[in-house]
Design goal:
74% helix
Length: 194
């Protein structure tokens, strides 16, 4: 009696993509939602991540899929917020009048007219440090900072959305800024001393 032999077929790229979406989709969307203004922006960013994933998975293997997806999501969020960098730099770096030249130099490094690998690296380093520092904050401080600074949402709108009074929101943002200043000051010194 012959027993049929089943030969496993290699998994095709489409089923790999579908499996990855099902395994990471909800958590990745939650990660993005915590860092953007609204669900529409979060879904747009997630779509960009899936598009990039489908392009890359067809051309090269990805060893650590989860880490790769979160890195791409973080980069997409950063790209969305890059236009806010200049005012954010003013808030993040404490300086005295004698250090105006240092602040200008720091802004020139992070907001150059030309894009070089070095300036791109430093910009990404800035955003990585900022998001790492944001992740250290209590959720209510982190969220009000993101909404107000990165998404340019007025305090009145945040108060309406959350049910928290404006003064409490201002206080939470202040604590967030103090923490972020301390963290970003270290980066500022490291960049300018190199």
């Amino acid at each position: 009696m012959n027993t049929p032999v089943t030969i496993p077929m290699p998994e095709d790229k489409n089923s790999q993509i579908l499996h990855t979406i099902s395994a990471y989709g909800k958590k990745l969307l939650g990660f993005i939602r915590q860092r953007v203004n609204n669900d529409a922006d979060a879904e747009d960013i997630l779509q960009d991540v899936w598009y990039q994933f489908s392009s890359v998975v067809n051309s090269e293997p990805i060893e650590q899929t989860g880490a790769w997806l979160y890195r791409v999501a973080r980069n997409k969020i950063i790209d969305k917020h890059k236009k806010k960098t200049e005012s954010l730099l003013d808030d993040m770096v404490v300086h005295d009048e004698d250090d105006e030249e240092g602040i200008s130099e720091f802004k020139t490094i992070l907001l150059p007219e030309t894009n070089t690998p070095e300036t791109a690296y430093l910009r990404n380093l800035f955003w990585d440090e900022l998001f790492a520092a944001l992740d250290e904050l209590p959720e209510n401080q982190r969220q009000v900072f993101i909404w107000h600074e990165l998404d340019a949402m007025p305090f009145n709108e945040i108060a309406e959305k959350t049910g928290v009074n404006v003064q409490t929101l201002v206080t939470r943002k202040r604590y967030a800024v103090l923490h972020l200043r301390e963290r970003m000051q270290q980066l500022y010194k490291e960049i300018l001393e190199d």
